[in-house]
Amino acid sequence: MKNAGSAAAAFAIAMLALLPLWAPRYIISLAAEVFIFGIAALSLNVLLGYTGLVSMGHAAFFATGGYAAGLIAKSVSTSFWLTLPMGILAAGVLALVVVLFALRTAAVTFLMITLAVGQMLYALAIRWRPVTGGSDGLIGIPRPTGFGIEMDGTRMYWVALALFVAVLWLLRRILAAPFGRTLVGIRENEGRLQALGCNVRAYKLASFVLAGAVAGIAGVLFAHFNGFVSPSEVHWQRSGQLLIMIIIGGVDSLIGPLLGAFVVVAIQDLVSSYTMRWMTIMGLLFVGFVLVARGGLVGLWHAFVRGVAVRVRPRSEVT
Amino acid sequence: MDLSFLSLQFLNGMAFAMTLFLVAVGLTLIFGLMDVLNLAHGAFYLVGAYIGLTVLKVTGNFWLALIIAPNAVAALGYLVEVLVIRPVYARGHLDQVLLTLGLAYILADLARGIWGAQEEALATPVLLAGSVAMAGLRFPLYRFFVIAFGIAAAVALWVLIERTRWGAMIRAGVSNRTMARNLGIDIGKVFAHTFAFGCGLAALGGVVAGPIIGVAPGLDAEILMLALIVVVTGGLGSLPGSFWGSILIGQADTFGKTLFPQFSLFLIFGVMALVLLYRPSGLLGKPQL
């Protein structure tokens, strides 16, 4: 069963890697965007789906990775081996500062503080013009270089895919390990873990920094891929969008956030060519999912599979 | 930086503080009773300000706008509570927060669709358009009105919650929901009314502040952030907390903007951080788990 799963995953990755051979440029660029936001949503899901912390300022870490990479690429070096680690580092350090502050207060206040801090950084991104480029954002960010070559659009797609797979694999390992089980324990019953002698605060802190750093990866990719980072990447609507991706995709799985990222990017692209009101449509879809399909697409799929299984099996076996 | 300049800034700060109070008190009331953090609160403020703008443009009467907009938004809030939030009470407050997040998206986007993306201002009512001369300085009369209005609203709310039957029902619901229901209080009705009332207060804030700060897309997020900071600083669920929190944050914002315009937000966050450092539950909040 495990081998079958790995084989299926390997096949899916191979198919996605071959996409640039036949698909038009436009599809490739959308797919790259899906992977980039997939990484960001995946990182937020470490908090929402595992530790049970609700952060409404996650876009700040995404954007910090992007700004850091952009600044370095523009003024120091375009080497991906420099921009990527620095982006991760910047996002991780910011996450550490935010969480040290936010964890002082109660669970509900945690959400409020992350939202408020995120919005403050949004305002900072607009006002700190000499560094961030103000409301225009940081523009003209060059493509990264690595192994002596410049990453063009197609190569960026492969980089995004590879990093997505790497992040997915890494998070799977981390979350299946005792560390991840402890996070789930904190979500389910914080008091009990505390009573068992677990340092809940340290685990929350670690999961938040991990999530922030991974969001930084997505930000670095975003900056290089689009050639710009703007304050709207910091705005709480961006943070909300990541939450929306997770909920639409499904909280209780690692692949859910990718599905959600796909749906949101696709809707944004499809709907915005017909109407300006794509945010309304996305909002309505999101509210619908929360109300009637809280498990997201993954949950719907499981329900569907169960339904089929019940129908196929002989009556006597169904209890 | 003479005394007259400082007193003028203080007045501006108070006027802004009272606007923040109207918004924050609705947020804290809804949260205190229902455990719902209403992320659409800023959007309700925005929609209220826009409805006020439209009424003002059509009728030319500010006072009519001040009555119609909050009531219209309260009606909208009532519908939202009954149709969207009520079905998920049993599921805990994350789902409710998520629903209000969705609503915030929808309302802000629809407002942009209906009222456009330009910045607009509500005209100051003729009656209050002048200024008052005091100690050789001229203070805009409308700011005095906003301050007086805010203080009157705070007193009225206090009376409403501490001295009326409806207030007693809310307080009962806050301290023990199940017990209140068993005593025969229709808690669902109290919830819906409180949610509508809180949204109406946000809209009231939007109209009152309209002649000073105007109305534009994006204001919803800014107001929501400030209201959250006020509520966290003052103490979650506390009415006096949101009053004093508003004054603290309103003044910090106004003085910060004049003293170091580029980084005024850091002053607000500094104030919030300092308060939370010594009182993690806010100035007047009860300690929470």
Description:
The complex is a heterodimer of chains A (319) and B (289). Chain A is mainly alpha-helical and 319 residues long. Chain A has helices at residues 2-22, 25-51, 59-75, 80-102, 107-127, 129-132, 153-176, 178-188, 190-195, 200-226, 236-249, 256-271, 278-292, 296-312, and strands spanning 138-139, 145-146, 149-150, 228-229. In chain A, strands 1-4 form a two-stranded antiparallel sheet. In chain A, strands 2-3 form a two-stranded antiparallel sheet. In chain A, strand 2 (145-146) and strand 3 (149-150) form a beta hairpin. The longest helix of chain A has 27 residues, at 25-51. Chain A is globular. Chain B is mainly α and 289 residues long. Chain B contains eleven helices and two strands. A two-stranded antiparallel sheet of chain B has the order 1-2. In chain B, strand 1 and strand 2 form a beta hairpin. In chain B, helix 1 packs parallel to helix 5, helix 1 runs antiparallel to helix 8 and helix 5 (141-163) packs across helix 6 (165-175). The longest helix of chain B has 32 residues, at 3-34. Chain B starts with a helix and ends in an 11-residue tail after the last helix. The mean pLDDT of chain B is 89. The chains are: A mainly alpha (319), B mainly alpha (289). Chains A and B meet through helix 5, helix 11 and helix 13 of A and helix 4, helix 9 and helix 11 of B.
Summary of the model, kept short:
The complex is a heterodimer of chains A (319) and B (289). Chain A has 14 helices and 4 strands. Chain A is mainly α.
